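re: ur msg from earlier - yeah i can do the 5-O-phosphono-beta-D-ribofuranosylamine complex, just paste it... oh wait u already did. ok heres what im feeding in:
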Amino acid sequence: FNLTVLISGNGSNLQALIDACASGALPNTKITHVISNRKSAYGLTRARNAAIPTSYHNLIPYKNKHPSTPEGTQLARAEYDADLASLILNSNPRPDIIVCAGWMHILAPTFLNPIAEAGVKVINLHPALPGEFAGANAIQRAYEAFQKGEVKRTGVMIHEVIAEVDAGAAIATQEVELKEGESLDDLETRIHAVEHVLIVEGTYETLEKLKKGE
Ligand code: GRF
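and the outut:
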């Protein structure tokens, strides 16, 4: 099976997938393309170190073609996303699964529709439980909610990607307890450790579904 991994930053979850393919935890599976929306993403270095082809898909040229109004930005993003889908669907080999691993760009229907029509699955890692803390800075928001006594635990999920942010059907989830007096840094470290396990588990589950033709 072939994976395309989308990243924006450190790439620690990408690294977990690279290691899982090498160790056989993801059998008959390889990462054939890593794409980042940020040129400086360290995950690109991780991919190069693993001899995985990389692409930097830059949003700036799309923004420069449109006025910096809400409508112009929406058009720029729609074109960017359509071209991202083409880049992926025209790559050889074409991926079976696209894994969003620390990918910080909301994917529009101009991406999701052609990808779905091509039968390619898209899954995403989100460091929160289904229905909680959707969007950016989820770990910090859970941390603050804990301080206010609003939650006692948070978690991590791998879910199918739909147009609504972090709202697709959950594939794998893991609760993470919140601890009195713990620093945000320490919580983030504990959560990232769970991410690195769950990203492999969620990808494995998705591959199993593909094998069954689901
Ligand atoms: C993860 O919590 C991810 O959801 C967020 O950044 C953290 C680490 O991502 N976007 P990475 O895989 O180390 O880039």
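cool cool. The mean pLDDT is 97. ping me if u need the other ligands too
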